[in-house]
Amino acid sequence: MADLRIPEDKASEVFELAARLYARQTQSYTVEELMRAGSEASIPPEFIQKALNQLQAREEEARELKARARQHQRFLTLGGLAVAAALLSWGALTYNSLSTAAQTVDLAWAQVENQFQRRADLIPNLVNVTRSAAQQEQALVTQLTQARQEYENAIGQTEKVAAAEQVNQALTQFQTTVLSSPQFQSSQLYIGLQDELAGTENRIATERMRYNQSVSQYNRQVQSFPTSLISGPLGFEPKPLFEAASGEVPAVNP
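User: That's the sequence. What structure does it adopt?
Assistant: Structure tokens below.
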């Protein structure tokens, strides 16, 4: 110890700590010293002992309270971790479920688009069938061709639905006006196209129904409690139903 060198910047810290220890030592009393001091103050020894016992009991109670507080804190920490893990698992399962439902909606809409495209692809054949139509009917042929082009140029579901409705209206007017003449009614090519159009319209109606069913199921899941608490923050919003401006299917005259 004699050879131990204390750095100057540590010396003040050593003196401060030593002073606190010395003060604590000089300011403490033994039981005998307390008894003598009590005797000088005319306090019976049994009361000194009773006071010491009470002091020790309070200190023990304080230690027990601190121990229980630490145990309670550990319990709360473990409970919080368990709740967080449960919420994380529920969130992951909910996300996967919503993602699957959203994919089902997208697949259903893809089927609707497939049938829209199938109908649009039949329009050039219809136009070819009616090349011999009267000049005043060529405006309807142009209108049908433009409606198909607008559908081809449409981007996104909203535009596709609007453009498909224009195709539907153009087809209805076209079939009612242009293809009602006997020369077309007797054409085997025309009859075949009409059959294809009829089948396509039926498939559109079926796929539209399936799409709306998928959307309804998805929307119920997104808006139901407690899924609604996290569906928005996760990026899952309600989707619109496919409600066409007109529910009529173009007339078919086989």
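The domain at 94-231 is CATH 1.20.1440.20 (de novo design (two linked rop proteins)).
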